[in-house]
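Why should sequence recovery work at all? Because a backbone constrains its sequence more than one might expect. Tight turns favour small or flexible residues, buried strands favour hydrophobic ones, and helices have their own preferences. The token representation captures these environments compactly. In the example below, the structure is given first.
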């Protein structure tokens, strides 16, 4: 592993443990030349997931985009980052377990909204307003009324 400080290509592993989601190994390394310490992650290489977007274009699934959308929707809300990571991990797990190589962006968006609805309704509305491309306040109010109706039924 190449040192990020001096680019020397020999390092030793100082500590090794599972990452939080148990799908990766976190390794603390020390450069044998300059002594700098750095962290690396080792993950299982999985078959790529392809996202089919609304316009028909295809691109590789990027879990960071899902997590980024969750973070933006939850800004200034009492939502822990760990919860957003758990949602991202769960969605990625569900997509991989589906056995499909191509997943529609609509399917991903619906899964994100389902999970956000359980976690924080304000974050859900924020995400939905961007995802569903609300054209006016009436569409937003309609969505919020649906949330209130669901809440009353429980």
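From this structural description, the recovered sequence reads:
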């Amino acid at each position: 592993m190449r040192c990020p400080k001096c680019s020397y290509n020999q390092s030793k592993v100082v500590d090794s443990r599972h990452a939080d989601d148990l799908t990766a190994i976190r390794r603390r390394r020390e450069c044998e030349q300059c002594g700098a310490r750095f962290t690396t992650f080792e993950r299982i290489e999985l078959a790529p997931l392809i996202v089919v977007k609304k316009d028909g274009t295809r691109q590789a699934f990027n879990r960071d985009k899902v997590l980024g959308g969750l973070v933006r929707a939850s800004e200034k809300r009492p939502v822990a980052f760990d919860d957003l990571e758990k949602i991202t991990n769960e969605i990625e797990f569900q997509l991989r377990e589906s056995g499909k190589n191509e997943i529609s962006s609509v399917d991903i968006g619906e899964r994100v909204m389902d999970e956000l609805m359980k976690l924080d309704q304000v974050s859900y509305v924020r995400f939905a307003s961007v995802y569903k491309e609300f054209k006016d306040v009436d569409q937003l109010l309609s969505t919020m009324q649906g949330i209130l109706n669901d809440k009353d039924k429980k």
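A few observations help interpret the result. The CA atoms of residues 65 and 88 lie 10 Å apart.
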